[in-house]
Amino acid sequence: MRLSRYFLPVLKEAPSDIEIVSHRLMVRAGMIRQEAAGIYAWLPLGFRVLKKIEQIVREEMERAGSVELLMPTLQLADLWRESGRYDDYGQEMLRITDRHDREMLYGPTNEEMITEIFRAYVKSYKALPLNLFHIQWKFRDERRPRFGVMRGREFLMKDAYSFDVDEQSARKAYNRMFVAYLNLFSRMGLKAVPMRADTGPIGGDLSHEFIILADTGESQVFCHKDLIEMGAPGPDVNWDDLQAQVDRRTSLYAATEEMHDEVRFASEAPEASRLSARGIEVGHIFYFGDKYSKAMKASITGPDGVDRPAQMGSYGVGVSRLVAGIIEASHDENGVIWPDAVAPYDVALINLRPGDEACDAACETAYAAIARAGKEALYDDTDERPGGKFAKADLIGLPWQLVIGPKGLADGVVELKRRATGEKLSIPLEAALEKLCG
Ligand code: ATP
Ligand code: MG
Fold first, then answer.
1. Are 221 and 256 in contact, with CB atoms under 8 Å apart?
2. Ligand 1, from 281, 282, 285, 314: best to mutate by most atoms within 8 Å of Cβ?
3. Mutate which of 284, 287, 288 for ligand 1 pocket (most atoms within 8 A of beta carbon)
4. Which protein residue has the closest C-alpha to ligand 1 atom 18?
5. Which end of the chain is more exposed for a tag (fewer CB within 10 A), N or C?
6. What are the tens digits of pLDDT across the range 212-248?
7. pTM score, two decimals?
8. pLDDT (0 to 100) of residue 198
């Protein structure tokens, strides 16, 4: 993409009422624009990151055996009356009436609708286990939308739902999601720690929140330090038996504020290993048994010929919140530092003197070579002064900067800078491209 034809409305200053760094950087880097409290337009740069995150989530969900569909944002109130949640949800639910005076709502989550879909088609244990997910906008009329897309009212969530014939198999489904979550957060460059969590209004008895640590996090969390450094299991695990992977982690103390028990914490973790910190919830998994399937009569016939409500779980990832969460975890005083896997472009290609024949030719060569290698460059071909270009490149935080100017070219070199470390190499263009494109 050529910057001269792109839409990247960067700002020198962000509005002074912005409280946290990710929100400030997203506004300054032209990633989002607030349209109403907690409701944002995703500008091109922000939208690309959102799509990258979404794709990683999708791939890891599919790897774990979940199947993608897409449910609508609008739902019938009557569906929610079946589960009893229509009244329980209170003011967080955005209620809408259509032209026929039918009561509807903008979905804050989809347990009811997926249960309705399931019960329409699945009658036998033979179709199980089944795990379905979608990535769709949700609306929750949060009392205090804040911190940009971190706590929005409209936000993008991946929500998956598992259906099993019995508890044993449902726990396996839970474990698959547990491991998929570790893997997908790790692919985004995040250290997300599973913590015992309260099940809240969704109910159930087994639940973990996946938390990334950040000073600006809204929840206080407590965990054994070893959990932070424990790597993700990776894709090459035995997906049919993940109990050991799960146990390795759940045997170490980790709890959110609501579930925290100071006495247990003290007895289960030696003082030096006890960490108390702020955290951001980026995912949440629940096993809730027959809570919805019973109320909504989603029954299946078991191998014994007896009908029983399906055993269910639900599994959410805050896709739009992750954009901000990743920035909280990865930035410096000059701007964002995107992990490679979610960067909106791979390389900022900076032409220090557009109009100069040698500079233009070298940049075009680089631009084409990067594209040929299947990578993406954002080519700054504008006539802004170099200082402005460098500041902008640091602000938007692409992993690499390839800087081409007349002085360097005269000496046969370009400059390749790694955004994360600031490390700079003055090397011939071919060598720089070799490094970038491999
Ligand atoms: P929170 O405690 O932060 O309000 P929640 O527990 O109500 O979130 P869940 O129902 O568990 O949220 O939703 C699944 C995921 O969706 C959360 O882990 C979070 O990452 C994301 N999420 C929830 N609410 C919001 C919001 N208002 N804005 C952005 N993302 C959100
Ligand atoms: Mg939650």
1. yes
2. 281
3. 284
4. 283
5. C
6. 999 989 999 999 999 999 999 999 999 999 999 999 9
7. 0.97
8. 78
Q: What CA–CA distance (Å, rounded) separates 349 from 284?
A: 39
Going by CA atoms, what residue is nearest to atom 3 of ligand 1?
281
3-state secondary structure the chain: CEHHHCCCCCCCCCCCCCCCHHHHHHHHCCCEEEEECCEEEECHHHHHHHHHHHHHHHHHHHHCCCEECCCCCEEEHHHHHHHCHHHHCHHHCEEEECCCCCEEEECCCCHHHHHHHHHHHCCEHHHCCEEEEEEEEEECCCCCCECHHHECCEEEEEEEEEEECCHHHHHHHHHHHHHHHHHHHHHCCCCEEEEECCCHHHCCCEEEEEEEECCCCCEEEEEECHHHHCCCCCCCCCCCCCHHHHHHHHCCCEEEHHHCCHHHHHHHCCHHHEEEEEEEEEEEEEEEECHHHHHCCCEEECCCCCEEECEEEEEEEEHHHHHHHHHHHCEECCEECCCHHHCCCCEEEEECCCCCHHHHHHHHHHHHHHHHCCCCEEEECCCCCHHHHHHHHHHHCCCEEEEECHHHHHCCCEEEEECCCCCEEEECHHHHHHHHHC
CB atoms within 10 A of CB 275: 19
pLDDT number for residue 197? 86
